DNA sequence: CTTTGTATTAACAAAATTGTTAAACAATAG
DNA sequence: CTATTGTTTAACAATTTTGTTAATACAAAG
């Protein structure tokens, strides 16, 4: 078998499934359409993954992991001074989402439509995040006491960063036709938007 | 016929359809489930609305109108000084979305899954928005020249406002379990979040 | 009180979609 | 070479979902 030369059928199906699920969601996706896009008969899809549900779970697992990686990117480089660290964190998070622009909508839709399914996963993630945030909150509090920045709740700051970074991609198709020339050149807009998000957050924590 | 005393069957179906479509989307919605929720046979649904598609369009039309109203709310009260105006606009927009928390996800999903359908609608909206923004941009430019605020692109500012306000509700189910006690009390969190969004935007335009 | 149009139901039909199976085929280990 | 194992296909089955229809009830109008 040539697993490396040509992509295996399994790989082809997974790639096609990812595309289909990310754009159309579970309900909108069709196993026949995935099989067709992968260039295999739809019996093959069932041979490798048994059910649509199981194929979907493979994609969900990977995408949830990617999403959590993206959230850790906001943490930034701990060796840098706090303002530089936040600046870098925002940029890294923005770039991460830029590389996975379909990810947030997929994850949000999935959480909304079957919350019970992710309760366990979520409880664990919540605890991890809690401890990590505590460290960063401490660093922020110390910087605030030194008068370098404003005192602020790190969670609120994270929500603001995620809001601005994620919304950019989430609502791109919605906003683009409404914004005239501003968003006409995607690359140029994204560059400007990244800078704007950083500027907005930095001003939020700037001592005044 | 008692059109007002008791809700008409048509009204019941529309209400059930709105709930179903907003939470599950077009693909996830089931006409049988809508009929059941409305307490009518599913033949009734087809009698009144012919097809799922036509029923969906009724909901979409209304929701797109609501969404565009919400966007106009950001404009704020033109009789107020610019900073107060923006402050009020953010608050009004936030409250609007708070009253329609399922709206943004629904609209975004719809735009992403069938963009061609809204091209015409969008061209028109884009032109209207363009002219309205021009006025506000002028007012901002004048205030900036007077040294009251920073010079800023109104469209960028609007995107930031929409980002922070909308993301709050869009990602609520996703964030809530990750944020420990912060989001435990929904009302309290929304109040804090509204204030945070206003603070963030005002700092963005504050002359420094 | 009969006609006419609307409302309602149950049963049915059609289509789409997921999933199965049996048989053919290919690769490979012994 | 052949037995075994995994791969592939075509055809089929089951289910779900949307949509239709024919029969019936009901209300209003003449």
Fold blueprint:
Two copies of one chain form a homodimer.
Chain A: H1 9-28, H2 31-38, H3 42-49, H4 52-73, H5 82-99, H6 103-113, H7 119-145, H8 154-170, H9 172-175, H10 186-205
Helix pairs in contact in A: 1-2, 1-4, 1-6, 2-3, 4-5, 4-6, 5-8, 5-10, 8-10
The structure holds a DNA duplex (30 and 30 nucleotides).
Structure characterization notes:
The structure is a homodimer of 208-residue chains. Chain A has 208 residues and is an all-alpha fold. Chain A folds into two domains: 1-50, Arc Repressor Mutant, subunit A; 56-205, Tetracycline Repressor, domain 2 (Orthogonal Bundle), CATH 1.10.357. Helix content of chain A is 75%, strand content 0%. Chain A contains ten helices and no strands. In chain A, helix 2 crosses helix 3, helix 4 (52-73) packs antiparallel against helix 5 (82-99) and helix 5 packs parallel to helix 8. Chain A binds a DNA duplex (30 and 30 nucleotides) through helix 3.
């Amino acid at each position: 078998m040539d697993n490396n030369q040509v992509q295996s059928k399994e790989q082809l199906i997974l790639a096609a499934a990812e595309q289909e699920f990310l754009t159309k969601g579970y309900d909108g996706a069709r196993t026949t359409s995935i099989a067709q896009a992968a260039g295999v008969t739809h019996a093959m899809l069932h041979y490798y993954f048994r059910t649509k549900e199981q194929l979907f779970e493979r994609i969900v697992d990977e995408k949830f992991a990617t999403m959590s990686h993206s959230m850790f990117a906001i943490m930034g480089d701990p060796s840098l001074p706090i303002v530089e660290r936040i600046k870098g964190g925002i940029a890294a998070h923005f770039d991460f989402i830029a590389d996975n622009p379909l990810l947030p909508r997929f994850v949000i839709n999935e959480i909304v439509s079957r919350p019970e399914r992710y309760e366990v996963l979520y409880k664990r993630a919540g605890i991890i995040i809690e401890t990590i945030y505590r460290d960063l909150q401490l660093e922020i509090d110390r910087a605030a006491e030194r008068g370098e920045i404003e005192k602020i709740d790190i969670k609120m700051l994270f929500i603001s960063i995620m809001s601005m970074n994620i919304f950019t991609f989430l609502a791109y198709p919605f906003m683009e036709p409404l914004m005239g020339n501003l968003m006409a050149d995607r690359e140029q807009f994204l560059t400007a938007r990244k800078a704007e998000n950083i500027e907005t957050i930095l001003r939020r924590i700037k001592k005044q």
